Backbone:
């Protein structure tokens, strides 16, 4: 018994109710919401998950259960008020939950990975065999189960689709406490439900991830624009370059706003005054960021082919580039994390807003949001990402929601509130949403919380009925991931 809920007696040793365990499970990367669970489970096998969820499902007073990966959500998505939080990373202490690599060249390589594993560990393990996952997030200290519950996007999405599109098979413990293996071929309804399913249908205990042969090195470029139209046209031009045997394609394509003359670390010191004066002149610069992977076999041809590619683009002089290893590139945000941690700026409120914007609205979005709401009101110091992707690289059967246009953009407002003034940023987020609403830009929130059930219904649009039916099928007692506040 913990806080008026009755828990399975055979999990006693693994269930913690002490203040430290409760505190650690009551907060997240957002540092905006605090919700105490009644108890925290430190599982050592998926049997423990089946027992925990099955006990709740068979009880006349079910308790809620939230899988917690790294709690890198920002609005309490991995919390369970007065329920049970499952510390998924505790599973990785069990040696049977290792990362196993299989398959072959003809049928494709894969890695069988525990849902609790961090992507950085998946990268390191697969590289030992010369292989790598194909689709990433910008930051790798996130769990496989956590990102697959959303979508998992980054600069590879335009080419490979989101992470949820690069999964062959899943093991899932459903809201009934049953362990089910699912794929496009077997138990497909559960497979599609869980991918992008915000933790609503089951806990992912294993994912079979698509792998490909890894390149070892990366050419990493940034080019600058003063005009959004030219910038986005060039992004789309690069996005349209087809994958070929040569290895020289934009393997990664993103973009960001440059409004702060104090954030020029990527650029050579001698060029920084010139870039700062361009910021002064234009207010916002748009930085196109792209990358080509290469190895010893392709190192001679890569420069020539890239030069050819850049010739067709209309950026301001110069091309800024770095040569780094594959791991250095993929793990780049961790370096920023270490710097921010040292300054005490990592564990601060993060009122983030991530949106998907249909291409038809992106010009109006630039004028109304980037130029008006951010620049004119002096919100110029945060990281703001903006880059395009294709709808046809996503699978509409999955739960993730995207705009209804062939090309759409993502914009990430990665606000960080050093002075605990997160409400100021949150109000900005509201202003952005209100602007889109008034301008008729049909944006979809990514990773986003909604304020009410009506907003969730609106978010899912034509997918709502399927989402709801799947909930009834796989988690009829509404036990799982209550922190998303969709059904609870
Ligand atoms: P948690 O926050 O612990 O959980 C998220 C949700 O998933 C919760 O509802 C939880 O109950 C559920 N869940 C967790 N594990 C499981 C499981 N095994 N099975 C089923 N449900 C589960 N996202 C991107 O797409 N692209 C990026 O580039 C990107 N960059 C980021 C950078 C930083 C610095 C941070 C903090 C976040 C970033 N994110 C990005 C967002 C990130 O992908 C999500 O917040 C993700 O959910 C975090 O993973 P987590 O393991 O911390 O999940």
Residues:
């Amino acid at each position: 018994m913990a806080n008026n809920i009755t828990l399975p007696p055979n999990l006693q040793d693994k269930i913690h109710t002490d203040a430290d365990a409760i505190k650690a499970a009551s907060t997240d990367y957002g540092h905006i919401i605090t919700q105490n669970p009644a108890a925290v489970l430190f599982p050592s096998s998926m049997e423990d998950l089946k027992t925990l969820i099955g006990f709740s499902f068979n009880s006349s007073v079910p308790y809620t259960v939230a899988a917690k990966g790294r709690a890198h959500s920002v609005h309490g998505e991995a919390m369970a008020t007065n329920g049970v939080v499952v510390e998924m990373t505790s599973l990785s202490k069990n040696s049977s939950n290792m990362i196993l690599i299989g398959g072959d060249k003809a049928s494709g390589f894969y890695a069988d990975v525990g849902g609790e594993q961090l992507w950085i560990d998946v990268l390191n393990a697969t590289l030992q065999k010369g292989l790598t996952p194909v689709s990433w997030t910008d930051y790798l200290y996130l769990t496989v189960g956590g990102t697959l519950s959303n979508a998992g996007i980054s600069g590879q999405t335009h080419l490979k689709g989101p992470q949820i599109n690069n999964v062959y098979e899943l093991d899932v413990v459903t809201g009934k406490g049953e362990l089910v293996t699912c794929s496009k071929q077997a138990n497909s309804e559960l497979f599609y439900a869980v991918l992008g399913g915000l933790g609503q249908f089951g806990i992912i205990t294993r994912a079979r991830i698509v792998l490909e042969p890894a390149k070892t090195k990366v050419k990493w470029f940034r080019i600058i624009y003063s005009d959004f139209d030219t910038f986005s046209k060039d992004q789309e031009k690069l996005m349209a370059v087809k994958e070929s045997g040569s290895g020289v394609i934009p393997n990664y394509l993103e973009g960001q706003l440059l409004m702060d003359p104090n954030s020029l670390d990527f650029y050579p010191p001698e060029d920084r005054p010139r870039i700062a004066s361009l910021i002064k002149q234009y207010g916002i610069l748009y930085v196109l960021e792209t990358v080509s992977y290469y190895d010893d076999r392709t190192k001679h041809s890569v420069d020539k082919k890239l030069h050819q590619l850049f010739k067709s683009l209309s950026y301001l002089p110069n091309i800024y580039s770095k040569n780094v290893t594959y791991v250095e590139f993929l793990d780049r945000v961790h370096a920023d994390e270490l710097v921010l941690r040292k300054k005490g700026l990592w564990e601060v409120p993060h009122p983030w807003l991530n949106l998907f914007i249909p291409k038809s609205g992106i010009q109006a979005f630039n004028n109304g949001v980037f130029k008006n709401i951010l620049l004119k009101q002096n919100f110029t110091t945060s990281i703001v990402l903006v880059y395009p992707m294709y709808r046809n690289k996503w699978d509409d059967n999955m739960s993730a929601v995207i705009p209804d246009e062939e090309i759409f953009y993502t914009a990430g407002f990665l606000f960080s509130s050093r002075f605990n003034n997160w409400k100021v940023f949150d109000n900005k987020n509201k202003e952005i949403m209100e602007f889109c609403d008034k301008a008729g830009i049909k944006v979809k929130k990514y990773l986003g919380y909604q304020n009410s059930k009506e907003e969730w219904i609106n978010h899912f649009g034509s997918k709502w009925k399927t989402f709801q039916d799947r909930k009834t099928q796989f988690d009829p007692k509404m036990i799982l991931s209550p922190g998303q506040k969709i059904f609870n």
Observations:
- Residues 29, 66-73, 77-78, 88, 115, 137-139, 142-143, 145-147, 149-154, 198-199, 203-204, 333, 447, 481, 483-484 surround flavin-adenine dinucleotide (CB under 6 Å).
- Residues 29 and 72 are 5 Å apart (CA to CA).
- The mean pLDDT is 95.
- The first strand starts at residue 15 and ends at 16.
